[in-house]
């Protein structure tokens, strides 16, 4: 399998990241791999914010996974800082290899390093395989999430 590197995403990674975001039934409806302009602009915003960590997993020079980790200071829980894991994607030919576990473990370790007291994530209700994966890693389905498109 080769060594795995988890590092900050750079502009050259955007085509691979967007490809993974679009490579499922939900992503294929909302992503536009043919126009990378909005993704590059978003990367600039993310890179400028020290609380945002868009990372890629690279194996043998190839981007094979990604996630975004956001650090959120707060007042609740006695002023606790929490982290939010978003947009976890694994390249199709790496699924089942343990890479997803490695990426989530990286996010948890980074959250601890950033003095977070809680790691949270959401997952679309249709992603039942992902739910089992997160539960296996110790996450609990403790809340109901809501969204409002703007």
Helix fraction?
25-40%
Radius of gyration: 15 Å
Distance between the termini: 42 Å
Q: How many strand segments?
A: 5
Q: Which percent band covers the strand fraction? A: 25-35%
Structural class based on helices, strands and sheet pairing: alpha+beta
How would you state the average pLDDT, rounded?
95
Q: Flag low-confidence runs.
A: none
Number of helices: 6
Word description of this protein:
Helix 5 links the parallel strand 4 (81-90) and strand 5 (118-121). The termini are far apart. The protein is globular. Strands 1-2-3-4-5 form a 5-stranded mixed β-sheet, sandwiched between helices. It has helices spanning 14-22, 27-30, 37-48, 76-79, 99-113, 128-136, and strands at residues 4-8, 52-59, 62-73, 81-90, 118-121. 19% of the residues are buried. The mean pLDDT is 95. Helix content is 35%, strand content 26%. The protein is built from 6 helices and 5 strands; from the N terminus they run βαααββαβαβα. With 150 residues, the chain is α+β, with helices and mostly antiparallel strands.
Brief synopsis:
By secondary structure, the protein is α+β, with helices and mostly antiparallel strands. It has helices at residues 14-22, 27-30, 37-48, 76-79, 99-113, 128-136, and strands at 4-8, 52-59, 62-73, 81-90, 118-121. It has a 5-stranded mixed sheet with strand order 1-2-3-4-5, with helices on both faces.
């Amino acid at each position: 399998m080769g060594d795995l590197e988890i590092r900050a995403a750079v502009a050259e990674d955007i085509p691979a990241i967007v490809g993974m975001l679009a490579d499922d039934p939900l992503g294929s409806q909302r992503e536009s791999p043919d126009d990378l302009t909005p993704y590059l602009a978003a990367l600039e915003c993310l890179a400028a914010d020290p609380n945002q960590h868009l990372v890629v997993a690279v194996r043998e020079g190839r981007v094979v996974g990604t996630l975004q980790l956001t650090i959120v200071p707060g007042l609740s829980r006695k002023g606790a800082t929490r982290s939010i894991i978003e947009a976890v994607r694994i390249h199709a030919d790496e699924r089942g290899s343990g890479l997803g576990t490695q990426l989530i473990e990286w996010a948890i370790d980074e959250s601890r390093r950033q003095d977070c007291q809680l790691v949270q994530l959401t997952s679309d209700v249709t992603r039942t395989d992902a739910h089992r994966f997160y539960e296996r890693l110790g996450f609990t389905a403790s809340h109901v999430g809501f969204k409002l498109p703007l």
